[in-house]
Write a structure and sequence with these properties.
By secondary structure, the chain is an alpha/beta fold. Helices cover 35% and strands 18% of the residues.
């Protein structure tokens, strides 16, 4: 990748931006070795369709099975380090007056890299909660799986948004208000297919923001962007930050 790959106009736009939003998807985590949702099914879990495990109905039907699957996924994520793309976003944040990171990922890699102001649209699989929405960091060990909430004795579940569930209203509202107010938005490593996240760049466009897409391939968003950079975020984002500042 050479310097000419990144347009001078984009560098100037980023350098003078007052409020920047970055929306990330599974692609940036894949560069850290985190399997995408479907690709994660290997070994003992290869016989299961993730669509049959990541639902409220699956948890009601067999809570132990779902809990053990998420425990396995947590172990996969724990072994994955933040990559150069994650770190470049941390660096970018230090130069901008206002910067918000909105992620569809549930692996917590942005926070581990050092990002602040992260809006997690789909939750975080490293956290657990009970049906009464208590976030629980620890619990007494017992043979029973899932374990129970120390506050209300209800069984725990991963703090993620399952298929068939709505995003938390406050989280979605905060994300929408943030993109309405930005003057530059990045879409990084996302297929731009999953709603309502896929609508956020369009909301920003409607309010006059410039739009940048960083992805190896074209997406439904590509025809609408001002700048498209084809490739991996771990290669493009560090170069963009270096050229801008």
């Amino acid at each position: 990748m050479n310097d000419n790959t990144i347009p001078t106009q984009l560098i100037q736009t980023l350098r003078t931006a007052k409020q920047v939003v970055v929306l990330t998807g599974a692609g940036i985590s894949a560069e850290s070795g985190v399997p995408t949702f479907r690709d994660a099914q290997t070994g003992l879990w290869a016989k299961y369709d993730p669509m049959d495990l990541a639902t409220p109905e699956a948890f009601q039907r067999d809570p132990r099975l779902v809990w053990e699957w998420y425990t396995w996924r947590r172990e996969l994520v724990a072994k994955a380090p933040p990559n150069l793309g994650h770190l470049a976003l941390v660096n970018m944040q230090t130069y901008l007056p206002k910067f918000t990171l909105i992620t569809q990922n549930v692996d917590g890699l942005h926070q581990r890299a050092g990002s602040q102001q992260v809006i997690e649209l789909h939750g975080n699989l490293t956290r657990s909660k009970c049906v009464n929405e208590h976030i629980v960091d620890s619990w007494q060990t017992a043979d029973e799986l899932p374990p129970r909430c120390p506050h209300c004795e209800q069984i725990l579940r991963p703090d993620v948004v399952w298929f068939g569930e709505f995003l938390q209203e406050q989280t979605l509202y905060k994300a929408m208000k943030t993109v309405e107010q930005c003057d530059l938005i990045f879409s990084v490593g996302t297929s731009s297919l999953v709603q309502p996240a896929a609508s956020l760049p369009f909301i920003a466009l409607e309010h006059g923001a410039k739009l940048v897409e960083i992805n190896p391939d074209s997406t439904p968003l590509t025809p609408h962007v001002h700048f498209v950079l084809y490739g991996k975020s771990g290669a493009i984002l560090p170069k963009l930050v270096d050229l801008t500042w």
